[in-house]
Structures are given as C-alpha cells and as structure tokens.
Design goal:
CATH topology of the largest domain: Rossmann fold
Organism: Caldibacillus thermoamylovorans
Protein name: Cell division ATP-binding protein FtsE
Number of helices: 7
Number of domains: 2
Function: Part of the ABC transporter FtsEX involved in cellular division.
CATH architecture of the largest domain: 3-Layer(aba) Sandwich
GO molecular function: ATP binding; ATP hydrolysis activity; transmembrane transporter activity
Distance between the termini: 25 Å
Radius of gyration: 17 Å
CATH superfamily of the largest domain: P-loop containing nucleotide triphosphate hydrolases
Shape: globular
Subcellular location: Cell membrane
Helix content: 25-40%
Length: 228
C-alpha cells in the first residue's frame, strides 16, 4: 500500500527531516510511528498524503508515485486516503452530518448515496444520535470521532492519523483507539503517528521509530521504546 525508497527531505532552512528512508507498509496493517519532537515523524507522515514533497526518492501510495504527482492531481489522489488530525479540523458552522457529508459532496456523489454512507459511518463511530449538533456542542472526543467518520466516508484504503489522541484525556483516547481498531478490522490500513506510550505498549501493532530523519527501529508488535 505504501512504499518509500531512498527518500530524503531537506527543508530550506537546512533541516534534514528524512534521511534515506526505505519502508514498506502492507494492506491491512496497523502501524504506529513514534519519535521525539523534531525527529522527522510528522514529515514522514505528511509525505504519505503529499502535504510535503520529498527532496528526492520514490513514494508509492496505492500504486501511484506521489513524489512525481502533479499538484493538480493531488486532490484526486487524496480521495483514496483518509487523514485524521490532532486538532480535528471540522467546519464550525456545519453540523455533524454536514461535516461528514461534505467529503462526498465535493465529489458530487448523489444525495441518496451521501445519506446512506454518512449514516453508516456515524453509526460506526457511535454518533448517529448527534447528527444535527455543531462541533462546538460536542466534547473533544466526539469531535475527533466526527473527524474519523469524515476520513472514512469515502471508503479509503488507507487512513493516516497524525497524533489523533494528542488533545484528548486518557479515557477518551482509549475510545478513539477502539474506533481505529474497528476500522482496521475491516481491512483498512492504519498509519498513526503518536506520542501515547500507553496505547502503543498496550494495543500491540507494528512500531516504526524515527530519529534524526531515519528509521531506527521497525518491529512487529513492538513497544514505544526508550529510543523514541
């Protein structure tokens, strides 16, 4: 699903955030990406959905070399993946239903399909009873579940999550993890950057540790580890 070959990323200020990364993530995997602040973790994640372009190297996502993808083609590419952010990025003037439906409206899906699919994903994240509420009327955990619903409403093959529990209390974080586990159980590939040591050490999955822009550890059913 995701392949990086000899990927380098150097920012204009001289910081090298990716230093010869080689990695392959298979369909259906659940992968944690861990590392200290400034280690290159966010750049690693952002390059997967073309928020950042590598300086050199090859990045294949769903069979597309996105490093060579024209900027005009990026929106179409992103329809095949879902992205979940730490700060939710919901549209404050839209209801729960409208926030999730928006992802289908921009691709001009039919109203019948939109209603069916939106209600399906809101049921999955246990928010079917809050369709008419605004983000400001929801808890942080509920807002993140809306964000997750929006990310999967297009039935993406990959969901990329950048610190999705970073702004949430521990109990809510576990609820969000249950949602991701359920999505993964349906065959969706999950790549999650996280600082949450307890989650990584309890909910065992593959762990990729980044340090100095390099992968320093890649373990199946790994721990957070002191290296990160």
């Amino acid at each position: 699903m995701i392949v990086m070959e000899n990927v380098y990323k150097k920012y204009p200020n001289g910081v090298v955030a990716a230093n010869g990364i080689d990695v392959a993530i298979e369909q259906g995997e659940f992968v944690y990406v861990v590392g200290a602040s400034g280690a290159g973790k966010s750049t690693f994640i952002k390059m997967m959905y073309r928020e950042e372009k590598p300086t050199s190297g090859k990045i294949i996502v769903n069979g597309i070399d996105i490093a060579k993808l024209k900027s005009s083609k990026v929106p179409l590419f992103r329809r095949s993946i879902g992205v979940v952010f730490q700060d939710f990025k919901l549209l404050p003037s839209l209801t729960v239903y409208e926030n999730v439906a928006f992802a289908l409206e921009v691709i001009e899906e039919s109203p019948r399909i939109i209603k069916k699919r939106v209600m399906e994903v809101l049921e999955l994240v246990n928010l079917k009873h809050k369709t008419r509420m605004l983000p400001s009327e929801l808890s942080g955990g509920e807002q993140q579940r809306v964000s997750i619903a929006r990310s999967i409403v297009n039935s993406p093959s990959i969901v990329i999550a950048d610190e999705p529990t970073g702004n949430l209390d521990p109990d809510t974080s576990w609820e969000i993890m249950k949602t991701f586990e359920q999505i993964n159980s349906h065959g969706t590939t999950i790549v999650m950057a996280t600082h949450n040591k307890d989650i990584v050490n309890t909910k065992k999955h593959r762990v990729i540790a980044i340090d100095g822009g390099m992968i320093v550890r890649d373990e199946q059913r790994g721990d957070y580890g002191y290296e990160a």
